[in-house]
Input
Amino acid sequence: MERRNNKTNGLIKWCILAGDLVMLNVLLLIFNLVHPYMQNWTNERVEVLWVACNLAMAIAMLKYSTIIHQRLVSGGDILRRILSLTVIQTIVAYLIMKAIDVRQPVGWLLIEIGVCQLVIMILKRFLERTVVKRMREMGRNTRTVTFVGSDPELEYLYEKLMNNPTLGYHFLGYYADNEKNNAKWGKRLGTLEELISKLESDENIDLGDELYVCLSKKDKEKMVALSNYCDSHLIHFFYVPTSVEKLGIPLKRELLDDMEVYTTHKIPLENNVNKVAKRLLDVAISVVALACCIPILPVVAVVIMIQSPGPLFFRQKRTGAGDKEFVCYKFRSMHVNKEADTAQATKNDPRKFPFGEFMRKYNIDELPQFWNVLKGDMSVVGPRPHMLYHTEKYRQAIRKYMVRHFVKPGITGWAQVTGFRGETKELWQMEGRVNCDIWYIEHWDIWLDIRIVWMTFKTMFIHDKNAY
Output
């Protein structure tokens, strides 16, 4: 099942950021035309100011980018973020200008630009927030929600999420043993036992994008079943505590406005700053890697054609982020065969030709996947993408297998550098790989990616016995 996602949220964010850059450059143009201090500036000095201000805004956005697309955010939070962005941008622009020409007095000019920008951005954010709210009132940019339980805490949460249509939440209904008398709760979808019965029968259930569960400790097994179902179907699971009690399920605390909820997986890469940092690292490494590929490409092509006539590249559909399919590229290391989409490579696989085995030994066959990274299908580091056949096989056999699809797949990953590489003959081997992938997803930071890249680079020169 394809992950239902809030696809327009990212588009809203990037449109706003692009609008901020346009606004800044229009403001700089006006200052250049009318500000008396800039009338005698040379074109070179003006260009330096433009570059410094744009670079400073880009740096400030890494920490203080817009949050108006978020659903539960106050006007005060938005105002503080605008102020922080403007102050950091002004300071960074000043440092850049002084680094280029220490004698140039630009402090007051940058403060004037900053004050004007602050006023314009406040008005701009107000207009943008109004447009986003209007979109959500019209049914665009929404998230679907289901409740499980009948505790009063859910009534409070319902009022938080549903009484304000500008937040963009759509309530599908609730599962509870007792039907609520209050009509505002909407449709009762069934009892708790009926819901659990549907889970056990593998019936396809529409629980929406987010599931909020408020049950007592005695219902722990049902909580585990719901949590596992959400993991397998890429639904965000939230536990709303009825009281302070330990359920025995590993949950992470989150704040939804002033409401405390718990989720099964806290994913650092859902943070936009972390996404940008990872993407910049991906692009930088991929550009260098592909540039290094160009000189060896003719040699690889000729040897493959001689030893195994057929296509240079092996193309295969694999499962990516959000359970979406994408075409993964590799240098072909096996003879063309009918089992390519179902059978794993083995140590003495007769399908491999000599140069193909050499490429697999030193990971050369993986190099075209840097093109997948540039396209955005993959990341340099992440859970390895599996062929569609194996995704369907293991999602049934391993409880948290689908959790690894909350992020983009990678060319290398934590599982690969910690010993879980190569053929998975036994189920425990794939379970170990999945556990490593989930650990990586929950503990991601940019330095972990750099560490994994370095460990992978070393294995290219120190042969890995599982590389076949």
Q: What stands out?
A: The radius of gyration is 27 Å. The chain has three domains: 7-137, 143-264, 272-459.
